[in-house]
Amino acid sequence: MGGPPDRVVVGRIVKSHGTRGEVVIESLTDAPERFRAGARLQAMTPDGSSSRRMTVRSVRNDRGRLLVRFAETPDRTAADTMRGLLLTIAGDAAAPLPDGEYYAWQLEGLAVFDENGEGLGTLARVEHGAASDLWIVDADGREVLVPAVPEFVREVDLESRRIVIHVIPGLFG
Predict the structure, then answer these.
(1) How many helices (H) and strands (E) does the chain have?
(2) With b meaning 16 or more CB within 10 Å and e meaning fewer, what string describes 135-165?
(3) Is the Cα dihedral 141, 142, 143, 149 positive or negative?
């Protein structure tokens, strides 16, 4: 099994806010302390072509939104240039998850089997949804969407690099 990726995305800058350099953050982490004053994050373009280190100066909640001011964004003009940037941490700084929960990078590439041991394909990627994640299984070049819910997921074995799912009629063909 491969290790964590070099960088893990913990947030996305949605837009600037006000005139003092604050930005609205879409938090993509279950660890809100990632945005505490003094925290250091890497801000990078979605394609990874450029990045810069950022230090959180202040953070506050405003009607359910996370407003963050970075030391490197003294005013709105500077904050406007940050729109769309992804905020990342080092991959090895990702918090351990509770039993039965997995990061997408842990699952992607695992072999997928049915309950009888028949190979179905490889988990190509994880798409995050409002109700549950969707696992996209590459089944001989065809994408099959599997809801990541207990009704379908029977076993995830990271050491053996395999996933066992319950297959209902029509799911794989």
Answers:
(1) 2, 12
(2) bbbbbeeeebebbbeeeebeebeeeebbbbb
(3) negative
121 neighbors 110 (Cβ within 8 angstroms): no
Give this prediction's pTM.
Answer: 0.67
Whole-number Å distance between alpha carbons of 55 and 173: 50
Q: What homologous superfamily does CATH list for 7-92?
A: RimM (2.40.30.60)
Q: Which amino acid is at 128?
A: H
pLDDT in tens, 115-162: 999 999 999 999 887 788 999 999 999 999 999 999 999 999 999 999
CATH (residue range 104-165) = 2.30.30.240
